[in-house]
Protein: Cytochrome bc1 complex Rieske iron-sulfur subunit
Amino acid sequence: MSSNENSEENLPSAQGEGEHGSVERADNPFADPGLPAHRPRVQDIDERAARRSERVVAFLFTLSMIATIAFIASYVAFPVDKIVYIFPIGHVSALNFSLGMTLGVALFCIGAGAVHWARTLMSDVETPADRHPIEADAETKAQVLADFKQGAEESGFGRRKLIRNTMFGAMAMVPLAGVMLLRDLGPLPEKKLRTTLWAKGKVLINMNTNEPLRPEDVAVGSLTFAMPEGLEEDAEDFQTQIAKAALMIVRIQPADIKDKQEREWAHEGIVAYSKICTHVGCPISLYEQQTHHVLCPCHQSTFDLSDGARVIFGPAGHALPQLRIGVNGEGNLEALGDFAEPVGPAFWERG
Structure:
């Protein structure tokens, strides 16, 4: 059978031909299907189910409060260096693990409680609204306020006091975790920034040989670095202590010392000054024998060790603190006290 012999009912015109010969579809794929019929939840028709959901939400909010209290307790209870084994993670910091777990539980429970509240107790009726200009007219504003009041009533916020009170408690306590985190800005300095390990009777130890320094060990024009007796390089707080107590020893001809106090605090021309630059705390290590100047390699602050270590160039704002020294009965150089002022950078203008 040829195509010319097809029956007319099989031709497009028999099925319905459009204006331009195209076939029209009986259905529209882009038609608005509308909202599905609203199906009430079990909580909408059974008050006992609603009560159960209320208790679940309250339990989550209460658990959040307990987790926040545990967060604060962990911050106080666990030392920073305590390591514990937790399967399958392995060895971790007890403080970090406890803080992460408790804060995570506190935030999760608030979120889970809010979601469960919205899904089971708040109104789930969908109301379509046409798009409108950004600026609302008076009628729209009034409608928004009315909708808000209606939503508040339907949420049960006013009559479900158990949920409301536990939510307020959870939301009020979670910020306490952030307040506790302010502790990590640093421990209270107390007097730690004002004092060092130097004290009366502390022997000067050569940092190169780890032996006590004697006056004859310091030659004129030489630069020697010292630390206080009893400070060990393998000590846990070595870096913290040496950052304040590092000392540089220089021997100058007594006649070349211009500052009266420097001469009185020296021993036979041997002067001891802090090695920590008063600009940003860099260690000073460059010494000019002829001028008695020391130079900070970071920002080129220059100090005159023959004149009270005053600043003669650079951004440093204060002279280097001097340590008063003498000789003990064994012939070793010793400190006669601590530095008279804080070591290092401006230290809040020597507050």
Summary: The radius of gyration is 40 Å.
